Amino acid sequence: QGLCDAPLTDLGVYQAQVAGQYFKNAGITFDAAYSSTSERACDTLEIVTNGSLPYQRVKGLKEWNFGTFEGESEDLNPPLPYEDFFVTYGGESQDQVRERTA
């Protein structure tokens, strides 16, 4: 999906519910939670935790900026590793993502 803030899909909601149930069944609990500022990331976290855990939104904790490839099919992406492929198209390099999220 990339940096664009598309809403969480019905499939994404279902997957978050499944993940939340998995954590509950496995007895996995969280002491703290963090999310990017994207709506779909916050929605996912709230579903996974059933809204029972306050969390901190972190601006730097966001997905890779794919430039003009944002929201397009992954079939258009080159093979991994991406390295600096997306820079030419207005996106971020692998090193830029690593520095931003470190």
Give a written overview of the molecule:
The chain is mostly helical and 102 residues long. The protein contains three helices and two strands. It has helices spanning 10-26, 39-48, 94-101; strands at 34-35, 56-57. It has a two-stranded parallel sheet with strand order 1-2. Helix 1 (10-26) packs parallel to helix 2. It is elongated and about 45 Å long. The mean pLDDT is 93.
How do the strands and helices of this protein lay out in sequence?
Elements: H1 10-26, E1 34-35, H2 39-48, E2 56-57, H3 94-101
Helix pairs in contact: 1-2
What is the structure about, briefly put?
This protein is mainly alpha-helical and 102 residues long. It has helices at residues 10-26, 39-48, 94-101; strands spanning 34-35, 56-57.
The radius of gyration computed from the alpha-carbon positions, rounded to a whole number of angstroms, is 15 Å
- Biggest pleated sheet: 2 strands, parallel
Low-confidence stretches: none
How many DSSP helices?
3
Strand content: under 5%
Lateral strand order in the biggest sheet = 1-2
Q: What is the residue-averaged pLDDT?
A: 93
Could you tell me how far the N terminus lies from the C terminus, measured between alpha carbons in angstroms? 21 Å
* Residue share in helix: 25-40%
Number of strands: 2
Task: Return the string of H and E elements.
Answer: HEHEH
Structural class: mainly alpha
Mass-distribution shape: elongated
